[in-house]
Amino acid sequence: MNHLVSPSLLASDFGNLSEDVRLLNRSMADWIHCDIMDGVFVPNISFGFPVVEHVRKIAEKPLDVHLMIVDPDRYLARWKETGAAILTVQYEACVHLHRTVTEIRRLGMKAGVAVNPHTPVALLKNILHCIDMVLIMTVNPGFGGQVFIQESYSKIEEMKDMIRSGGHDVLIQVDGGIDTVNAPVLIEKGADVLVAGNTVFSSEDPADTIRKLKMLEE
Ligand code: DX5
Ligand code: ZN
């Protein structure tokens, strides 16, 4: 049970956001995943600074902020002020990725890099020494509730091998279509952090679903 669970607020009830954050506070969730979409990098717009500021005031767990936006360098300091503990940028949105992740760390946040389903994880080889987490997207980013892409398993294994052989201290996060059935397989393949949106918030008892995701045996 070494893995972490980071429920995604994208699937929460925005009309009762405070209550859903309190639910996560009381649950076995480790982090709170905030999906930021700009309508350019992905064909959807979610929420931004004012909403995450509100979440931060209530949340008792680290905010795991996943930026699905173009040119994220414009807002790194602002995300730090807003309360992000972990800030993940998309590989495909960063021309000078080394500069971006170095700045995220300099600002005092953990740096994550997300790869879309079509992006080979091998492209991260020369950045692993300066990041804290790789996010392997297991759906195409933009929407909750999509079907898990099966080819993701081999990417996780390949990434785990790269991290181990390089002696890096980097977590593997998986995001998109995660449920209680594929979660144990993902952990077995090497995932360290499970993001789950609909599986948690569309379930009858979200706290119990989080517990189930947390208590999986490897
Ligand atoms: C997708 C987001 C995910 C999303 C996951 O673009 O990055 O974090 O909220 O939602 P589910 O778990 O419902 O697939
Ligand atoms: Zn996400």
Detailed description of the structure:
There is one protein chain. With 218 residues, this protein is an alpha/beta fold. The protein has one domain (4-215): Aldolase class I (TIM Barrel, Alpha-Beta Barrel). Helix content is 33%, strand content 20%. It has helices at 17-26, 49-58, 76-82, 97-106, 152-166, 183-189, 198-201, 206-214; strands at 4-7, 32-37, 63-68, 84-90, 110-115, 133-137, 171-175, 193-196. It has an eight-stranded parallel β-sheet with strand order 1-8-7-6-5-4-3-2. The radius of gyration is 16 Å and the shape is globular. The termini are close together. The mean pLDDT is 97. The protein binds D-xylitol-5-phosphate and zinc ion. Zinc ion binds at residues 8, 33, 35, 66, 175, 195.
- Integer-rounded radius of gyration: 16 Å
What overall form do the CA principal axes indicate? globular
What count of domains describes the coordinates? 1
CATH superfamily: Aldolase class I
Low-confidence residue ranges: none
Named once each, the bound ligands are: D-xylitol-5-phosphate, zinc ion
Largest sheet, spatial ordering of strands: 1-8-7-6-5-4-3-2
Helix count, DSSP H or I runs of 4 or more residues: 8
The appropriate CATH architecture is: Alpha-Beta Barrel
Structural class: alpha/beta
